[in-house]
Structure formats: C-alpha cells, structure tokens
Amino acid sequence: MSGDNKKLYITNGHVVSMNPKREIFTNGTVCVENGVIRYVGESSGAPSSEGAERVDAYGGLIIPGLINTHTHISMSVFRTLADDMADRLKRYLFPLEARFVTQDLVYWAALHTLHEMIRGGTSTFADMYYFEEQVAEAAEQAGMRAVLGETVVNFPAPDAPEPYGGLGYFKSFARRFQGHPLITPCLAPHAPYTLDDEHLAQIASMADEFDVPVMSHLAEMDFEVSALAEKYGETPVQYYHRLGLLTPRLIAAHCIHVTPEDIDLLSDADCGIAHNPIANMKAGKGTSPVPEFLAKQLRVGLGTDGPMSGNTMDMMHVTSAAAKVHKMAGRDRTLVPASTAFELATIGGARALHMEDSIGSLEPGKRADIAIVSLDAPHMFPVFDPYAVLVYCAGPQDVRDLFVDGRRLLRDYSPLTIDPLEIRKQLGNIVEGVRTGLKSL
Amino acid sequence: MSGDNKKLYITNGHVVSMNPKREIFTNGTVCVENGVIRYVGESSGAPSSEGAERVDAYGGLIIPGLINTHTHISMSVFRTLADDMADRLKRYLFPLEARFVTQDLVYWAALHTLHEMIRGGTSTFADMYYFEEQVAEAAEQAGMRAVLGETVVNFPAPDAPEPYGGLGYFKSFARRFQGHPLITPCLAPHAPYTLDDEHLAQIASMADEFDVPVMSHLAEMDFEVSALAEKYGETPVQYYHRLGLLTPRLIAAHCIHVTPEDIDLLSDADCGIAHNPIANMKAGKGTSPVPEFLAKQLRVGLGTDGPMSGNTMDMMHVTSAAAKVHKMAGRDRTLVPASTAFELATIGGARALHMEDSIGSLEPGKRADIAIVSLDAPHMFPVFDPYAVLVYCAGPQDVRDLFVDGRRLLRDYSPLTIDPLEIRKQLGNIVEGVRTGLKSL
Question: What is the mean pLDDT of chain A?
Fold first, then answer.
C-alpha cells in the first residue's frame, strides 16, 4: 500500500527543489528508491539509472507534491449549492449534512475529490469531516498521504447520534489507522463556537494521550469573536490557549481575526496555520494576516477548504490567490511574492502539519512526493521565472504526473489508482438522491 | 474570413443563453446559419438539422463566447518577468518595450496569446498595444473578433519614433481595417499621465471623425490621481470629461480610483468599463467599485489585462475573481453572485464594448460566438447551479469547442485556425533574443 519497492529515475526537467537553499536544477534528475528520495540535482551528477523506471518530465518542472492543509473533501457532493447565501453555515450547511451525510456518501464523494486532487498535483491533504474512517479508506485506495480529523461537535452528527459522539468514533478510528505509513488520524474539534470549554480541554488531553494532531477552525467567524469577547473577554486564540489547545499539535484553519498578541501566542506555541485564501475571499470573512505570520516565521500552509467553500481542489489557484490577496489587502505588489507563495504550497504546508522532516521539498532522505508540471500549454510559456510560472500561470491541468511515497498515482494526465467511471457512476446516484431530497428540505 | 456559409446544429447540452430573461435550456440546441444564430431553445422545438453540421456538446454547457475587454496580448513574450517588482511600469516595462518590441514580436506573440484565448473560450478581445496592425493580422488569421487600439503616448514608441506618432499609425491602420467583419480599429490614448491635454482633446475629435471607439487606462494609478488633483484639482474621470473623452465611445480600463460623482459622470456619458480583478489584485492598486457601478447599470465587462499583469488569458478565473474580490472588499458573501459575474464575462463585456446588439448572449439574430464547456472533469460535478459551476469551478481547460461568427476555432480541445508548433518555434526564437538582450539591459 505504501511506496513500491523499486527505483525511479525522474529526469529531463527543471527541478524546483524547495530545499533550504531553494536550489533549482535546470537540467535535473530526481532518483527514488523504496519510496525515498535518494538524489536531487543536475542530471550530470545523477547515479546510474540501471534497474530504475525512467520517467521523462519532457522539459517540464519537477516539484514537490502540493500540500492542502485544510479541506472537507466529501462535501464535493454538495458543490455549487448555496454558494452566495448569507449566514449559510447554521442556516443551510448543518441541516444539509444532518439530512444527507452517510457512510456511503462520504466514501464515494471522497474518492471523487481524490480524483480531482491527484489530477491537480496534490500529494498530501488534511481533512476534517464525519465518517472520517471512510475518508481514510478512500485515501488508502487512492494512495494519497493524509491527516484525517474526525469532527467533534456539540450536536448530533451524521456519524454520532449523541453530542460529542465524534470522541468515541475517533478512538476506534485511531486504533485502526495509527501507524499507517500514509494516514495520520487526528482529532478535529469543529470550532470554538461548536464545543464547550470542558470538551475542548478534554480534547487537548486526549490528543496527548493518543499522540495525535488536533485540527480546528479558529478565529474564522465574526460571531465567534464577539461571543468569546462577551463571555470571557478573550479572543478565539486566547480562549484555545487557556484550554490547553495551543500546542505544536494544533493545525488551526483560517486565523482571520487575530491580534498581534494572538500571533505571538500562535508563534510561541509553534502551532500550524492553514490559510484558505480563495474560500476566505468568497466568504467575505476578512483576510488572514499572513505577511505578519510570515514575519514571525509561523508555520503557514495553504488550503482549499471544502468544495462548498472553495469549490475546487485547485491548489495552483489557491497558491496564486495567496500571492494576490495580501497584495490587494496591503496595497503593495511586493507582498507575498511568487517564491513565497510557492513555499506556502509546499514546505510551508509540510511545516503547518509538522511533517517537514519527511515531505514538502525534494531532498535526499525525504519521502518521494513529487509532481511533474508540463510547460507545453501556451499560458506556460515563456518561463523567465519558474516560481512565477507556477504561481501566476499554472493550473491543475498542467500537472502531468504525480508520485506519492514513490508510487505513481498519475501518469501522463491519467489517474492510475482509482476508477473515474465507477466513481462518477456511484456519486451520480448519490447526487440524484440529494437532488430529490432537497425538494423536501 | 468571416462566418462560414453553412448551417450548424449545436445540441445535447445545457444552453446558458444570457438572453434578457436569462433562460437556461436544459436539453438545448443552438442553430446557426451563415454566422448568425437562428434558434436557441429546447431541442424539442428546434428546426430540422437537415443540411447542418451537427456539433455534440456531450452534455456540457453551451454558453456565449467570453469577452475580454482589456488586454495587451503581445506582452505574452515578457510573461513572468518582474511580476512582483514595485513601480515597474516606468522603471521596467517602458524601457523593456523600447528595447525589444518589433513588428515581428508583436505578430508572433499575438498568435501565441490567441492560441491561449481560443483554448479558453474567449471569442472577442479588446487590445491596446503598438504595431496594432500586426495584432489585427494575427486576429484575422485566428478568426477572433477584436477591438484593437493603437496606443498613443507622449514619448517615442516602438512603432513611432516621434511622440504621439501613434496618431499617424492609427490613420493607416483604420483605413485598412475599418469595415472588417471581425476587427474594429480604435484609438488608444495610453492614460491621463502619458499624454497632454491638447492631444487627449485631439483624440476625442479624431474618434468622432473616424467614428471609432477610444480605449484608455483611467483612474488606475495613485500617482495619476495625485498629479491631476495637484495640477487641476480634478479626478482622472473629471479630467477626461473636461477634455471631451467621456462619451459612449470610451472603453475605460480599471476605474479603480473613482468618486461617487465620477460614477455619475461615467454613467451619464454611457461609457464602457473594463474591470480587471486579477491584475488589480496582483498589482495592489486597490479595488474598482464594481458593485456601485452595477447599481447604476453601468456598462461593465471583464478583462485579463496583459500577460505581464494578469499573466494568463484565463477568463474563467478572471470571472471567478470578479465574484470574489468584491465579497472580500465589502465583507459580504452575497455581493456579485455567480450569475452576475457570468453576466460581466458575457453580455456585460458586450455592453462595455457597445456591441450588445450583436454579441454577448445566445439569441436569434446575434452573431454566432459560442463556446462549449465540458462537465466531464471531476471539479465540474455535480452541477446544482450552472452559473456557480461556470464561475467557481470551471477553468480554461474545460472549454471543448469555440465558434466565432459561426466559424469553428476549437474542435474537441484542438485549435483549428492556427499552427501551435510553428507559433511556439517562432516565439521561442524571439524569446531567446529577449533573454540574451536582458543580460545587457
């Protein structure tokens, strides 16, 4: 299920390594053995390709697989429902999920979205939803690396009839998947406004006990900020800090409404942050102060958010948006330049997940999560600056090949580990059920 | 050179008509004869397909061709140069153009960008640059509809050694192309800060004399606003108004720094506005008040801006950005909903160019500018709302077919009127010259 026990010789491309020196090898080769990168550099210095499968990049860019640090992949089944509706989370999304989300829906919608992610060069994703065990099964089948958070909320959830039932679900999920080479189970308290103090504190302890990450929406909503200010005189970040959740385990999604003091707290606690520029723009929620995070060397990665929020899994355009929204907000075109945005999509995402020792860059000793980006399409030519072409020009359709843990998931634009027609058929049936059910909602 | 003298029967798709009632025909057909749309509606009511070429939309969306109201297509040769550089227009772009822009460069770079536009579903574009006659030749070869503005500036330009030499160039350009079925020559005073009062007023008269549109950058730059405030106590819009340029002929690009009074002036004069949300974000220049324009029923279309500004010709993501930047700026997710954004990309663009009687929607009597968008890719499924899938999910890679004036420019993702390999070869040589020349710049 993990990397194949064989050698790969990926060559004839420009290697954008994202190593600490940010080296680019213009006539480069990457060698892989048993799922681990063994060589990254100019082709002239590469070891023998004997016994290795040769992969031709056809003059394209060889890059680290993209890392999506925040999503809810099974929500693809609801894509294009209620996009521009005000106050939709409580008015629309929660009721929708209560009505329709089943184990079967989560599994097939996850595979559908994994198909999209594979085609777009994503090698690792961090997800939070219900029936997360089905997301894990789908990810395992697809061969993707994943950090998967079982959602915990203070109301009955699709996979747990009692409030906070996700805690029980998590335990069996963790027992099954902990130690998996690609899948990291974790706890996902939904948000400060959907759990009480006691359960949030309990999750902090459970995370220690199980030694797992914690992912949560944090400082995303106006009403979240005002409610905590009124109740405790605290910001959302201060609130999580008091309850013991601000630790290196935390992957905090959004972090829009944060003060300079909050940024110091997040920095001191070494938390990871998942920045979702497209979803945040579309929601009109405000702009996360990413330039300030970066000035403090915070661990910041990028996320698409779920397909009802960001609509697609297109990490290329999320990266592009990360470069642009801060220029727009700060009225300064030099903010978050292309090279910085591409860092956020790769090594930054790895840091946000505290996985930078194994993924996020092309370096000997790291796991072989690698994408090949074609430069054939007209919008990808010329290339005076490879970071600019990746961030300002590329789209998911330019991804030709993808490897995760040394296993090939995409070959010449075609997915290898999933069955697109079967997925579309199964999801099609589920969508028809939703369509019919919506009429009576 | 214009529409073929034959019948088309485009069927098996969802027709998003953008007609005044905004009708969508879920099992729809569009019939075309001699480049003119003859029928738009449910397939059940369509006339006989006898003698017509049958075009299968394979269950995709049949939409009006997209309209790009502001670009400089030949700048694709400089793509990814100096993207994140401050104050780059005068420090970098003008010297770059003075050094490298030739007739040959403009022609081949135009064809390269036309290739990209055709693949992305654009059927009409409004361009301003130097050697605009070569852009016209390229557009004519490609079969695209175009409004082409010869640039006029107060310094020596690549195609005119004397300041304001563009005026002379325009005259012969107009003589050659006026009356062309697809190409509308026009005058393009660069901006309030690159021409003097006398020449701007002269251009207003010349536009009347030649009966042509005028396109110009307007209210785009901070320094433009402050200089006019200091010199005349006027806003850029007031300045153009005083000089006689605020007329229905004007297509004003950007209009970022406008007051409520300016909006009234633009509205009273019935000007067209080209909104470039991606380029404006990336430049950190501020946000054009599009919701306020729309409240006054102003003629607003969308543009990519040039490939050194917006980087690509991807009108799908420009449309998506138009839906999102105003939500972000106004902190309101209901602003510029998907249906409104898609209007801007189609009938809105036609209105901005004052061409809404002939293009911008699928209606009997209009010219047959039609794109087919595939729903096959995973990011395009499911479709609960066709506008949302077009605006929030689609990319240029989803465009399967394109017709302009009834002529097929793209068939099943392959361009028919241009030679991609020859273009890449020719532009490759020019790019190598630029690369070498840059070392001594």
Answer: 97
**Shortest Cα distance from B362 to chain A (angstroms)?**
23
Q: What is the ipTM of this complex?
A: 0.97
Contacts of B278 in chain A (CB under 8 A): 324
CA distance, residue A422 to nearest chain B CA (Å): 12
A110: its two tokens: 């996850």
Cα–Cα distance for residue pair A389/B415, rounded to 1 Å: 23
Indicate the burial class of A315 (C-beta count within 10 angstroms; 0-12, 13-18, 19 or more): buried
Instruction: Provide the pairing of β-strand B250-254 with B214-218.
Output: parallel
The pLDDT score that the predictor gives to residue A89 is 86
pLDDT for the residue A2: 42
Contact B176, B210 (CB under 8 A): no
A interface mutation test: which of B80, B119, B278, B393 has the most A CBs within 10 A?
B80
Choose the closest CB to A389 out of B80, B85, B331: B80
Residues of A in contact with B115 (CB under 8 A): 378
List Cβ neighbours of A334 (8 Å cut-off, separation of 6 or more): A327, B84, B85, B86
Q: Which parts of chain B register pLDDT below 70?
A: 1-5, 441
pLDDT digits over A375-424, tens only?
999 999 999 999 999 999 999 999 999 999 999 999 999 999 999 999 99
Task: Identify the three-state secondary structure at position A338.
Answer: helix
Distances (CA, A) of B7 to A25, A131, A132: 53, 53, 53
According to the model, what pLDDT value does residue A3 have? Answer: 44
Residue A11 makes CB contacts below 8 A (sequence gap 6+) with: A28, A29, A30, A43, A46, A49, A54, A55, A56, A57
Which pLDDT score is estimated for A4?
A: 53
Q: Is the pLDDT of residue A67 over 60?
A: yes
Extract the tokens encoding B358: 């002939």
Contacts of B435 (CB under 8 A, 6+ apart): A384
- Mind telling me how many Å the CA of A366 is from chain B's nearest CA? 30
CA A96 from centre of chain: 23
The stretch A172-200 carries a mean pLDDT of 98
Query: Among partner residues B313, B397, B431, which is closest to A397 by beta-carbon distance?
Result: B397
In Å, how far are B123, B153, B199, B239 from B163, measured between CA atoms?
33, 6, 10, 21
Residue pair A114/A142 in contact (Cβ under 8 Å)? The answer is yes
Main-chain dihedrals φ then ψ at residue A419, nearest 5 degrees: -115, 95
Q: What is the structure's pLDDT at B4?
A: 53
Domains and CATH numbers, chain B: 7-64+361-415 (2.30.40.10), 66-352 (3.20.20.140)
- Is the overall model pTM greater than 0.80, yes or no? yes
Of B88, B378, B383, the CB nearest to A116: B378
Q: Provide mean pLDDT across the span A263-268.
A: 98
pLDDT-based confidence at A252, cuts 50/70/90? very high
* A379 vs B81, B313, B389: nearest CB: B313
